[in-house]
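Hello, quick one for you while I still have it in my head. Could you read through the record and tell me how the tokens relate to the sequence? No rush at all, and the record is pasted right below.
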Amino acid sequence: MNRKALVVVSIVLIIISVLIFEYINFLSTPSHLPENPVPPTYYTTTISLVNSPEIPNEAGPPPDFYANITRGNELKISINVTSTGLSPVLVIVQKISVWWYNPTVNLSTWYWPPNNSTDTNIQESAFSYSASPNSVNLQLSSSNSTIITLNIAKDAPVGQYSMYINLETELPQSNGTYALSAWGPTSYWFAMIINPK
């Protein structure tokens, strides 16, 4: 091989090596991927109060709904889920938690401060809850619903509560079971005022 051909082959090999290196670097660097991938939507929800009047919101972005309830009574919340057709899904009521509590009712402040240990103690003394059914099996192109019942304690702290309902999504596996979706729970914000009897 003459010297000129050797130089050309060397240059071609260097170019190929650089291209391979750049391609490997591109694949291993997440910069070409979206920073916040959009989670798939397996179902949509409609949340409504069953047995309590809603409070109109006149300040700031609203929670999904406001509720007005008296000590010793039940607050019933209906959650209707409708398949988006991506997959069958099992929707589970994971938990209901107090994010913020204020003993003074002020409809313009549903947002701050965030939860602290005091709010957890208040939750334990304010109410218990159950869902019937606790899990909703949602087939393709179908709808189903569950009713969450909050039993408000007779001596519950009066005031205003900012709260979350967390729904857990489980997807079918090849062995016929369901497993937790990688996208985790979906949260719905609601707020309630507990009044004295």
